[in-house]
Amino acid sequence: VVEETKEKKEESKQQKTVAVPAAPGAALPFTFPMPATPQALEKIVGALSPVDAAVALDRIRKCHAPTLREDNRKKTQLFFGLLLQRFEVLAGAASIPVAHLDVLAAALAAVAVSVPFFAVTAARARLEKMAARLRRALRDGQTGWPPARTLLLLALFADLFPATDKQHPVTTPAALYLGHVMSHCAVRSAREAVTAVVAGALAAAYSAPAGRVFPEAVTLLAGLVHAAGVGDASGDGAWGEGLPLHVREQVGGPWLAPDMTTAALDAKKQSKKKKGEVEEALSLASGANGGLSLDGGRQLGASQPISIEGGGGLLSLATMLSMSSAGAGGAEANPGLPGGVPARHAALAAAVATLRTLAAPAASTASATEILGPVQAAAARLYVTLSSGGRTGAKKGASSQAVLTGALAAAVAACDGIKADALSSTGTLRAPLAWRTKSADAIKQFNPMYEEEGFQKGRDYDPNRERANKRQLQRELKQEARGAVRELRKDNRFLAEQRAEESNVAKDERGERQRETMSFLEKLEGDMRS
């Protein structure tokens, strides 16, 4: 009985420690187990509200920090992978849960500080998969625009890793991927045009903080704005006048052209119920004012908040992605935007504002005139269309003040800003044209220099005394070397004469001894014969 009671007490303690509240309003336990599978993470934060989920993830990170135990580093790496996987799953949902994605982004940023190398490895693996999918889609003849999940991941990487580094293992490949997307993917519908605007906003997030120019994004957005500058009532082909051939083929049509007709103006002035329906179509689960601020407040896609047709909301990244989502039937079944004309106007305002953000770094370069030329032409074309109140198809008495409200007013303000930025930078970094002049250099003379007074033979008159002393020492060294060679030759000659004399004396002595020996032998021979 005692053992059973002990076991029940231990089980109750474990349940108190590990138990997860079933309702969002229930009290949270102080400690949580480190999840090892996606199911375990879903069990912990699946039923929690965004606020409680943020507290739970923060407690998991702090209770299992790598500084507390040695084996917690591997657990933290696994935890980062699970959070990133959950972020991908939620980002691919039909209705984007903005609040939960913000919570996951904050948790990922905190965990990435503890395991930076693993975070870089996980991000690079996903970038490689993105690039492979893009190549496969372009090879199959598709337009290749990435889905909302990919764009949200790129927005997350822009907040997790520094975009101001000259070269980074994550942000540099991500910027290259965005460059490939915006230079090779064609726009064939209004939804894809909105996706292009979102990609341009991400390009600005990667390049603007470091003051770098993103030419692919500038070219594509300038083409979209240029094509939108003709209005809805223009004839076929008029939207592409003045665009290069490759940009015209990529843009494909005036997808973001403002509707300036009288019917559209009358529709905007209808009941407030219609406005509420439009705002509801453009908003997300958090309402029209909700935005995906992955770093706690920054709105990607526009340099300033943009009003949506008088509703006062912010055109956030999540709102743009909801507009570009094709839905269950696909892009062919749903070619238009879910919000209709107001959504198109809001996307146009976001495109112009993003184009201004992308063009700002180019204004400080020496080639600002060439880079900003298409941007200025597109902004001027759109400004003329909006400020004229839609002459084609609109009543002559229509007031331009009635047209320029909400997103269209923001677009006009952005066009004015582009014009002002271009005027402030034109001619400031370039020197005026001038003839190239070259100063006449004197011809080098080789005339000898004479000392007319007080000349001394053997003296070096070089003004550089160090160089003169060096030459003097070199002359003395040569003299000593010649003297040493001369003495050595004399010694060799004397030794050769001595050796020859000794050799002659020895030769004479040998001849004398031979003669004495031969005379003795001849005398002995004669005695023997006699």
Shape: elongated
Beta percentage is: under 5%
Major β-sheet, in short?
A: none
The secondary-structure element order is: HHHHHHHHHHHHHHHHHHHH
Radius of gyration: 45 Å
Q: Which class of secondary structure composition applies to the elements?
A: mainly alpha
Number of strands: 0
User: What is the count of DSSP helices, taking H or I runs of 4+ residues?
Assistant: 20
- What is the helix content? 55-70%
Question: How is this structure best described in words?
Answer:
- This protein is mostly helical and 530 residues long.
- It is 61% helix and 0% strand.
- The chain has 20 helices and no strands.
- The chain has helices at 2-18, 38-45, 50-63, 72-91, 98-114, 116-139, 148-160, 171-184, 190-207, 215-228, 245-251, 262-268, 272-282, 317-324, 330-333, 341-359, 368-387, 400-403, 407-425, 465-529.
- Helix 9 (190-207) runs antiparallel to helix 10 (215-228).
- The N and C termini lie far apart (156 Å).
State the gist of this model:
This protein is mainly α and 530 residues long.
List the helices and strands and how they pair.
Elements (H helix, E strand, L loop, with lengths): L1 H17 L19 H8 L4 H14 L8 H20 L6 H17 L1 H24 L8 H13 L10 H14 L5 H18 L7 H14 L16 H7 L10 H7 L3 H11 L34 H8 L5 H4 L7 H19 L8 H20 L12 H4 L3 H19 L39 H65 L1
List its salient traits:
single chain; 530 residues; mainly alpha; 20 helices; 61% helix; elongated
